[in-house]
Amino acid sequence: MANNPDIQDLATLSSQYGNLFGIKRGGSTYIVCIKGYDLFREVMLDNSKTFAARPSTVVQKILRGETCEGIATSQYGPGLIAHRKLFHSVLRSMGINGKDLAKLVVEELPYFVDELHSLVSSCSGMAKIDDISEVFQYASLNVLAYFTFGNRYSYKDGKFKILLKNNFQIFSLMSKLTSPGLILVSIIPNLYKFWLPKTAREIQACVRNLETFIASEIEYHKSTLDLNSPRDLIDYYLLEVATQSSKHFTETGVRKAVMDVFQAGTETTSTTLKWAVLYMANNPDIQEKIQCEINEVLGNKLPTYEDRIKMPYTEASIMEVQRKASIAPVGVLHAAGESTKLMGYDIPKGSLIVPMYTSFLHSPEHWKNPFQFDPKNFLDANGQVGTRPAFMPFGAGLRACLGINIAKQELFLFFTTMLQHFTFQLPPGILKLDEDYIPGLTLQPKSFQVVLKQRH
Ligand code: HEM
Fold this sequence. Notes:
Blueprint: H1 7-17, E1 20-24, E2 30-35, H2 37-46, H3 58-64, H4 78-96, H5 101-106, H6 109-122, E3 126-128, H7 129-149, H8 158-174, H9 180-187, H10 198-224, H11 233-243, H12 251-265, H13 267-282, H14 284-297, H15 312-325, E4 334-335, E5 340-342, E6 345-347, E7 352-356, H16 358-361, H17 404-421, E8 422-425, E9 437-438, E10 444-445, E11 449-454
Parallel strand pairs: 2-7
Antiparallel strand pairs: 1-2, 3-11, 4-7, 5-6, 8-11, 9-10
This protein binds protoporphyrin IX containing FE.
């Protein structure tokens, strides 16, 4: 459980031991599981700094090397603060330069739609979800390629396929990292330096390939950099490295930060869209309501992010997909940066903190029918999107998701465009698609087929 806790096991343990419980397994690190909205807030918001550290596990070392530079796995401190600040300021700068955030996604929309249409013609209307999710992977990866490298790729481009393969392979292999071999390297100090289980070696190979790819992009950016006119995330980073305005940026740090953006921002978005397709096929009445809103507000024009204000039912449906699917069941693990107390219990420094997202996203205390797909969960009496404090799929506090604005725009624009052009239906003879998930780092729907019907 040290690397990849299954939420079912955690839910069972929490029903026995309460909202806060600790586990000790392999090594000496104490694993503290936190359940429920109040405790999540107490840890992530009220005591954000105390719990803003990341655990230093063998898996991190295998994946990221000894130094853990970059963003997602780095420790909380001036370096991380500088990375997060730069990320936000790049988003702002790209907005000011007119190459605004939504444009990153909007540029991708025509390619996304074309690819879905070609899928329909090649599979006579019935698509396997694996095929559709590949389109989601292309699209979400391209948005980030545009943000970091300054250009999108053709979906057929060989270079793009290499980027895609290595990026997504890391996630699927990580979900398999529960072998006895991993327990061995977790228990025996430094064993990982001499021997690793096969899956871990495969992950390392993918990480190396991805890093080589990013390194070549960085080299290209260095040779074409105009200090007065940065184009994308890499350029802004290189500017910082060149001017030495912050001692926190090194070329290795830039490479790792770009890796983090790809790793954190592609699987999450594409998996959410996969669940959206499943819920639409299972809830034709809801899908029809969304399509009515799309017809009224958009007609045939492609959406912009501003359109969401006039489309509360669509926006509420996307939030409901995120709530019900709860794709990141334990987010990214945290650690206690200092010894402290929670609910009167001692939490030793270095304890690994496992936040159970599903415990508040599926809590009957906060949602009327937590296990039913119901966009009304997010609508007030006037049919407008209301605030729901327990809706925190992107985390909260000092380590909250850095890509939240990109992700929200991607989900709205890809989802809306998809339903503007297609209706998802159950295959003949199937009454309902299985809404159970495959356990892993992110929760994936089980493989399914849907009928993809063109609307126009
Ligand atoms: C539906 C899409 C997404 C979901 C549900 C999601 C969710 C999360 C969650 C739960 C965390 C952990 C927060 C914590 O540790 O407390 C996280 C971290 C992070 N996310 Fe996202 N994310 C999404 C998309 C993105 C995108 C598109 C990007 C990139 C542009 C991104 C970049 C990051 C980064 C860099 C971190 C690490 C932040 C840190 O360690 O300080 N995410 N995300």
